[in-house]
Amino acid sequence: MTAALRPLRRLAGVALCLAAIGGLPVLPAQAKDQLVIGISQFPDNFNPKINSMAVKSYILAMAHRPLTTFDADWKLVCMLCTELPSKAKGTARFEKTKDGKDGVAVTYTLRPDARWGDGTPVTTKDVVLSWQIGRHKKSGVSNAEFYRRIDRIDVKDDHTFTLHKNKRTCNYANANDFHILPAHLEEPKFENPNTYNRRSAYESDTTNPGLWFGPYRIAKVEAGSHVVLERNPTWWGAKPAFDRIIVKAIENTSAMTANLLAGGIDYIAGEVGMTLDQAMALEGRHGDRFNFVFKPSLVYEHIDVNLDNPILADRRVRRALLYAIDREAISTQLFAGYQPVATSSINPLDRVYSANTKRYPLDREKAAALLEAAGWRLRDNGIRYNDKGERLQLKIMTTAGNKTRELVQQVLQSNWRQVGIDMRIRNEPARVFFGDTVRRRKFSGLVMYAWLSSPQNVPRNQLHSEEIPSEEGGWSGQNYPGLRSPAFDAVLNGLETQCDPEENMRLWHRLQKLYMEELPALPLYFRAQPHIMPTWLKGVRPTGHQYPASLWVEEWYAEK
């Protein structure tokens, strides 16, 4: 085992525990009226529409609900609606748009008992404003494409509405990205769309009860530290068991262990909590104190490549980078095989996965040959240069404080150094990394992070040329590599509209083949989510996809 692959050293001193706990009130173990959850990052904002970030989704799932979602059995279900649109029931119908294109009309009815936390009913007025915010070019919404596909909304009454979509997609009933906001609070904030993403009520008045309609509402926010959620008295579903839930952000993953053992937190969320290697080590030492659930997931750890960088624009260099990585060693030696090598961006757990793609086993000779062909020659110092005397030097970034990612970076740096690539490491806190650097494409070389996916999720927002973030577009879209490819665009468009099972599967296989040939990102591995729960916590069902278990927090309880 190389030095870069040695296990991480773990800190568990009392001083570290106390520093990480930071003065939060900790109730005795027998008083199960509160639950303290540890997560590894802190959200950079609290608006459900702005900036996709796993930690934010995890917290908001307890205080906010999407129109529809995928459940723990990977089935599409209603959360804020009464039933899914259906052609058989007449709530979904195919139609033509004004310009003669194939469209679809889908009708939803909001739960009549849904209330915002201040008692205001959730109505179609909220739906219409949320659509207007979502489709505006300056609002900065992460998935603006979803809202722009809705040409108009017909409102039947306070609860029933029809979305007229200008594209006839196979998953027309899916409205997972339709996040409904309170019109009575957000309409004044949207008067100036150019500043909305910075000045919405979710930023200026985060603890206002009227922003939330989940089992809990956000009652207190200590930036960078913790969020306190209290029971929402206007919640219409089953009464949640805990009076309040505290979600603590502990960005140093060694400190996460210290907090758990010291009693500063009860539960480490598998979606956004501890790294797998630390969880396995903890299970070996304290397996009798906690319940450990290692959930295989669709979480895709990868490295986005800035395709506007002239070095990385050469496909031969991207392929050389991947051939030079010993991904099998990373999987087996760091993660004991729990986190398998990703052979494409699609997990074998997903039914649309294809095994017939280009493979990149460790092959340093092939990596060297590709670099030579791209004009990068080795010099005596072991680094490659081009004919202009420019050094083959790149920068890789990830979330600071995540020890596993930092260790993987060191392995990558060592692997690439062996083929003559000078890779420099520079990391940032998660809220800066995701909130600014990645979102605004400020990275010059490589960025390592994870995508959370739902089953059979068409990655249009990540790969279509129309989804490259820009200032003109309010930084919406998540095509951070800057991929501009008519071939990708055609396949992505077809995946959404070609509903014949055989043709649809052919397109899925084509997408994966393209992905592994062009490498807009370098696949690393699929993560397993280590949920570490106290033995008394019951009712948690990890999903293994992008929609967290906290969407069903009202089902959690403390066993007496």
Structure description:
This protein is α+β, with helices and mostly antiparallel strands. It has 17 helices and 20 strands. Strands 8-9-10-1-11 form a five-stranded mixed beta sheet, with helices on one face. The longest helix has 18 residues. The radius of gyration is 24 Å and the shape is globular. It starts with 13 loop residues before the first helix and ends with a strand.
Indicate the CATH topology of the domain at 296-528: Dipeptide-binding Protein, domain 3
Structural class from helices and strands?
alpha+beta
The global form is: globular
Task: Measure the end-to-end span.
Answer: 47 Å
- What is the radius of gyration computed over CA atoms, rounded to a whole number of angstroms? 24 Å
Q: Mean pLDDT, as a whole number?
A: 91
Name of the CATH superfamily of the domain at 296-528: Dipeptide-binding Protein, Domain 3
The parts where pLDDT drops under 50 for at least 5 residues are: 1-30
